[in-house]
């Protein structure tokens, strides 16, 4: 997909990867950007920095009615949605002991919000015979987020759902990509490090933390090539292959890393 003259919606747009996508899409010549997030003030600031093509809206992506209205309002204003970026995500830093409320929130933000977006945006895309869904899923969805069970489980589900969409709708003109970065310098990582979360410490120890702008650059390249799996950290592909070929060895290596960090 070429972003020139396209209408795009980005959720989780108040900062991090979402705001970087907005800036990059504007630089590519997008016609209109609708930036959605719970944090209306921060999203408004992003929209103002991007310019007049950007519009900020307050949306709770875990509320299907709000997602449906986001899509309907965008279609009324601009006539269509060419690209919907389901980018909102949350981490917990918890294991099996994480409270049910944390599991539920992870499920609703990391998975159900993608389902709600697809339900709302697919009818018009299918009617036109074209459209694009970009789901931010994380490398945790193809590997594992050590130290965060809810994040690992829900990001695997997000990748699985994105793949299902790609298989089901590609022949009807709707393309799907799963954006799966590993470590990214975002508030989510900073908050995890401040809280001492093991997963955040593993990411920091890897020495491969990208900026949100670097992730946005990778997203643009992946969209241009219409690749399903967009890996801003190319080493993730090698990790995934190693994990598939030798799961016991892969797990042993991660356990060793965890022991070192805990020591």
What is the structure about, briefly put?
With 263 residues, the protein is α/β, with parallel strands linked by helices.
Task: Describe this entry's structure for a reader.
This protein has 263 residues and is an alpha/beta fold. The chain has one domain (7-262): 3-Layer(aba) Sandwich (Rossmann fold). It contains ten helices and nine strands. It has helices spanning 16-27, 40-50, 64-78, 100-128, 149-169, 187-194, 198-206, 212-225, 235-245, 247-262; strands at residues 7-11, 32-37, 54-58, 83-86, 131-136, 174-179, 183-184, 209-210, 229-230. The strands form two sheets. Strands 3-2-1-4-5-6-9 form a seven-stranded parallel β-sheet, sandwiched between helices. α5 links the parallel β5 and β6 (174-179). α1 (16-27) runs parallel beside α2 and α1 (16-27) packs across α8. The protein is globular, with a radius of gyration of 18 Å. The protein starts with 6 loop residues before the first strand and ends with a helix. The mean pLDDT is 96. Residues 6-184 form the Ketoreductase domain.
Query: What is the overall silhouette?
Result: globular
Classify the helix fraction into a percent range.
55-70%
The overall average pLDDT, rounded, is: 96
Give the full name of the CATH homologous superfamily: NAD(P)-binding Rossmann-like Domain
Distance between the termini: 47 Å
Q: Which oligomeric form is depicted?
A: single chain
Radius of gyration: 18 Å
Low-pLDDT residue intervals, each spanning 5 or more residues = none
Helix count equals 10
Strand content: 5-15%
Domain Ketoreductase: 6-184
Organism: Micromonospora palomenae
Keywords: Oxidoreductase
Family: Belongs to the short-chain dehydrogenases/reductases (SDR) family.
């Amino acid at each position: 997909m070429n972003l020139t003259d396209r209408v795009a919606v980005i959720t989780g747009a108040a900062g991090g990867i979402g705001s970087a996508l907005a800036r990059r899409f504007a630089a590519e010549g997008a016609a209109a950007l609708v930036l959605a997030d719970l944090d209306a003030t921060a999203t408004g600031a992003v929209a103002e920095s991007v310019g007049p093509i950007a519009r900020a809206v307050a949306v709770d992506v875990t509320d299907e009615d709000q997602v449906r209205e986001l899509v309907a309002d965008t279609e009324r204003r601009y006539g269509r949605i060419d690209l919907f970026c389901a980018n909102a995500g949350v981490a917990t830093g918890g294991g099996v002991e994480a409270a049910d409320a944390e599991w539920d929130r992870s499920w609703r933000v990391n998975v159900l919000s993608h389902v709600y977006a697809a339900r709302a945006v697919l009818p018009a895309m299918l009617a036109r015979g074209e459209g694009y869904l970009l789901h931010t899923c994380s490398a945790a969805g193809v590997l594992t987020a050590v130290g965060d069970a809810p994040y690992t489980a829900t990001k695997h589900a997000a990748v699985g759902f994105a793949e299902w969409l790609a298989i089901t709708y590609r022949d009807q003109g709707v393309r799907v990509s799963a954006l799966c970065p590993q470590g990214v310098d975002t508030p989510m990582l900073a908050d995890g490090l401040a809280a001492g979360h093991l997963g955040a410490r593993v990411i920091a120890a890897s020495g491969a933390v990208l900026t949100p702008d670097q992730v946005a650059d990778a997203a643009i390249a992946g969209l241009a090539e219409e690749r399903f799996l967009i890996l801003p950290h190319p080493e993730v592909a090698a990790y995934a292959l190693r994990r598939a070929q030798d799961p016991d060895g892969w797990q042993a290596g991660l356990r060793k890393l965890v022991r070192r960090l805990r020591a």
